[in-house]
Amino acid sequence: MKNNSAGLPTKRQKSFLCSLLFGVVIVSAAFFIATAIIVVDHKQRFPGLQRLDSMQVTPVNLCENQCSPDGSEALPKGIVVKTSDLEMRPLWGPREKRKNPKSPMSLLAMAVGKKQKANVNEMIKKKNPKSPMSLLAMAVGKKQKANVNEMIKKFPLDDFVIMLFHYDGIVDDWKDLEWSSRAIHLSAVSQTKWFLHPDVVSEYAYIFLWDEDLGVQNFDAGRYVSIMRKEGLHISQPALDPEKSEVHHEMTTREKGSTVHRRIERMSRSKKHCYRNSTDPPCTGWVEMMAPVFSKEAWRCVWYMIQNDLIHAWGLDMQLGYCAQGNRTQYIGIVDSEYVVHYGLPTLGGSQNKTNSEPSSNEPSQEAVSKESNHIDIRTEVRKQSFNELETFKRRWRKAVQEDYCWVDPYSH
Ligand SMILES: *[C@@H]1O[C@H](CO)[C@@H](O)[C@H](O)[C@H]1NC(C)=O
Ligand SMILES: *[C@@H]1O[C@H](CO)[C@@H](O)[C@H](O)[C@H]1NC(C)=O
Ligand SMILES: *[C@@H]1O[C@H](CO)[C@@H](O)[C@H](O)[C@H]1NC(C)=O
């Protein structure tokens, strides 16, 4: 998706350049050593060689910052910290410890024979290091406090960092909740994207970007993460309980008895029909934006696709497949065994304040919905805005595709 033709090298090119550079350095070092040896013999006789010698000693131009993150070129490499995390550290004294602190990685080396395969398998399973933490990010308002509390209880705090964006600006009223002091509270809601920059959240294995109106009676975050890992999913969402939920797309409906489904074959409630041979979203390779979960690799890609000025992010869901780190029909799925209820409540903004924030929600029904007439206007406005943005997004996508001669659509047919 990146423009390969001009300007900055892409990541792959960059790392290729880095290895190339490394190779060149090795080769020139070897060459220098070789010449040095020869030169020692001949220096006396050919003093002119001395200058040639010193020219080869300094491969200055080879050190040109190919491997440094943008803007850090003026610093010595060793001091540059490329990522951050969201762990809170006290101003003095010891850090509050996680109950199961992230153990540093260790190396297990064993000489094995096939006969002991089963036993070795058991041993290695036990040595599994503690898995890295994941992140739950949610835009919340005080009205949904009770439900948000229930939701967060399903996320073990030893394995998850909780980040709340308070769209109504009320933060203090959450202090009484048990987990509140361990969550990160932000009230600059209109720019959630800032706080989820891939470099900031790269320490986390999975990023949950959830709406606040989900029922989690049949959901366990720990189990969910292990299913994603086992199934190799890079983008997913929990299935919706169809009896209690507001379902917008058939694809998200829970299939009883299944762990994960990656496609649907039946007729869709929307105009688009899905068959066994369907290869496009929303029949396969698709999740809705109300409860998406991204691997950190997928998130790094999706983040770049979020348009700063398109606040409802309509249309993004249809393009998620490009960020699936491989074939979208395989790496995107709906988790049936851990499922949720989508209440479709009037969240985000409520009745008093017209909201214009939150990229993670793309259904107008979740915006300010109210029976009172002046609030219906808000809903209509939001819907209109969302459709306009959808058109803008599609237009930008088409233009980007046209202009990038190096980009090939893996899904065109
Ligand atoms: C919402 O509206 C009320 C008054 O209607 C105002 O006091 C409050 O500051 C507003 N909140 C936000 C986040 O704009
Ligand atoms: C897919 O299957 C449907 C119904 O089984 C059929 O009508 C349609 O032509 C098929 N499409 C392709 C591209 O094979
Ligand atoms: C993705 O996988 C499906 C099913 O295996 C296959 O039909 C399709 O061609 C693949 N698409 C790409 C882009 O590899």
Automatic annotation (TrEMBL):
UniProt keyword terms in alphabetical order: Membrane, Transmembrane, Transmembrane helix
Pfam families to which the protein is assigned, alphabetical: DUF707
Name listed for the protein in its UniProt record: Uncharacterized protein
Comp. bias (Low complexity): 356-365
Claim: rRNA-binding is one of the keywords in the record: no
Ranges for region Disordered: 244-263, 350-377
Sequence intervals crossing the membrane: 20-40
Signal peptide range in chain numbering: none
Highest taxon of the lineage: Eukaryota
Amino acid composition bias (Basic and acidic residues), ranges on this chain: 244-258
InterPro entries registered for this protein in UniProt: DUF707
